[in-house]
Write a sequence for this structure.
């Protein structure tokens, strides 16, 4: 898959033209010539037809979990320098082009007048040109609105924080967290066989699952899951990006009764309780899944489209769980399951093709967790949404699957992410640097204890200093 060429300084000036009075054009760049990220050729498709509305600039209020982030105080301080107290594009210094998709171009930037060496003050600026010719203005406006709505309401460690919304002329700009680790798709392309070692695949899948759980609990159906949209933060944890085709629906949280389970371990107390007819198990489970979500829009990325989107019958929350199945498959096997020679062939495979798993990969076929992965993927890639894992009981059901056995869900954001061959040096060093030697040893053991010898080499261990 050919990476897109990086935008040059001239192109950046084209994005912000000379008559754009709000912007200081003194762009300084030492690295505009090459982007460190390969952008994806698998762009999202969108055929929805929403309505037009006008925009206004705004500084987003810090949400509780992020209120102590130094970026907030910097953004506020910069805004206070302005006569109207609002952040403007001239407060930002664009440093480098990061990538682009169908809708937007994204730049690394910093606030002018702040410490130039402080990596904590770097941001990503996502710029959408509403006049661009590639799609109808109405479509672009609707996507910007969807993205703005989602970003403004999110507050999760694996999702971007929206620091400011800047609208000027026909540009809509979002100031969000910068992810120096690039995206998972670029990482896959640099890995042997374009796939991740199983423990790393499990780690990224687990973090993405938590994000989908959170989005669904808020009523958002994401619709654009793919490795290109999973960015890696400086600490190596994920950040799901790109909310322009998500949609919102009501969600009615419920407590679901779980089937009672017998204790699987042996022991005197266990025997006694069985003799007494007692069973152990959690009885109730909290589920917040937007089951009533419904849309007929044909949006998403071909290889990741659920059958109900491909057939046009209308879709709901289940499309994210289908896409999650494709995502886990791609992380593990290095390709998507239904990809055909053309987009039409891919769609046909999604609708009627057989789900096949590559064989012959000794590393995967030997392992019990590979069997677990296959089972999980098969349950997610169930064509009938009514029978698809996650559609009714949400992420809670998926988290319980044996593929994720041993994942410490509440602590995962504090676990050191796996370091994979092919990861950009910056992200690796940042991730490693955050942890003391002792902690690295402990965490390395956790990650590598179940890995094969070959995989052990792929993960961080005591030798890394
Ligand atoms: N916060 C960020 N930090 C670093 N790079 C980013 C960030 N956000 C986006 N990028 C880069 O910019 C590229 C395009 O961004 P994005 O996917 O948000 O654009 P888009 O036009 O909305 O995409 P799509 O065509 O999927 O709708 C990404 O693939 C990534 O390489």
């Amino acid at each position: 898959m050919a990476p897109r060429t990086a935008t040059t300084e001239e192109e950046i000036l084209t994005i912000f033209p000379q008559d754009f009075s709000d912007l200081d054009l003194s762009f300084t760049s030492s690295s505009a010539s090459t982007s460190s990220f390969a952008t994806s050729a698998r762009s999202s498709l969108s055929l929805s037809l929403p309505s037009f509305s006008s925009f206004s600039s705004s500084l987003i209020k810090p949400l509780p979990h992020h209120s102590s982030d130094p970026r907030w105080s910097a953004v506020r301080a910069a805004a206070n320098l302005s006569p109207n107290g609002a952040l403007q594009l001239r407060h930002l210094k664009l440093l480098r082009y990061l990538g682009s998709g169908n809708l937007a171009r994204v730049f690394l930037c910093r606030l002018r007048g702040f410490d130039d060496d402080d990596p904590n003050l770097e941001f990503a600026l996502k710029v959408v040109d509403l006049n661009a010719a590639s799609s109808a203005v109405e479509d672009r406006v609707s996507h910007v609105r969807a993205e703005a709505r989602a970003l403004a309401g999110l507050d999760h460690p694996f999702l971007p924080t929206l620091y400011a919304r800047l609208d000027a002329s026909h540009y809509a700009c979002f100031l969000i967290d910068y992810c120096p680790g690039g995206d998972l798709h670029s990482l896959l392309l640099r890995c042997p066989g374009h796939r991740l070692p199983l423990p790393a695949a499990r780690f990224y899948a687990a973090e993405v699952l938590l994000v989908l759980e959170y989005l669904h609990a808020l009523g958002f159906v994401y619709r654009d899951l793919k490795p290109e949209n999973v960015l890696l933060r400086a600490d190596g944890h994920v950040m799901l990006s790109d909310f322009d085709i998500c949609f919102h629906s009501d969600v009615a949280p419920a407590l679901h009764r779980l089937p009672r389970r017998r204790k699987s371990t042996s022991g005197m107390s266990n025997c006694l309780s069985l003799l007494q007819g007692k069973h152990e198990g959690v009885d109730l489970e909290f589920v917040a899944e937007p089951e009533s979500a419904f849309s007929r829009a044909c949006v998403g990325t071909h290889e990741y489209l659920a059958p109900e989107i491909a057939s046009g019958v209308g879709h709901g929350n289940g499309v994210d769980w289908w896409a999650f199945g494709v995502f886990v498959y791609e992380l593990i096997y290095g390709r998507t399951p239904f990809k055909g020679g053309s987009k039409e062939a891919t769609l046909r495979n999604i609708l009627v093709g057989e789900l096949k798993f590559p064989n012959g990969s000794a590393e995967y076929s030997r392992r019990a967790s590979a069997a677990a992965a296959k089972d999980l993927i098969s349950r997610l890639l169930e064509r009938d949404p009514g029978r698809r894992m996650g559609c009714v009981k949400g992420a809670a059901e998926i988290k319980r699957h044996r593929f994720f056995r041993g994942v410490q869900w509440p602590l995962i954001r504090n676990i050191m992410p796996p370091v994979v061959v092919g990861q950009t040096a910056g992200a690796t060093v940042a991730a490693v640097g955050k942890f003391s030697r002792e902690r690295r040893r402990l965490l390395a053991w956790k990650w590598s204890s179940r890995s094969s010898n070959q995989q052990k080499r792929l993960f961080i261990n005591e030798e890394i200093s």
Summary: The chain is about 30% helix and 15% strand. The longest helix spans residues 198-217. The mean pLDDT is 77. The two ends are 34 Å apart (CA to CA).
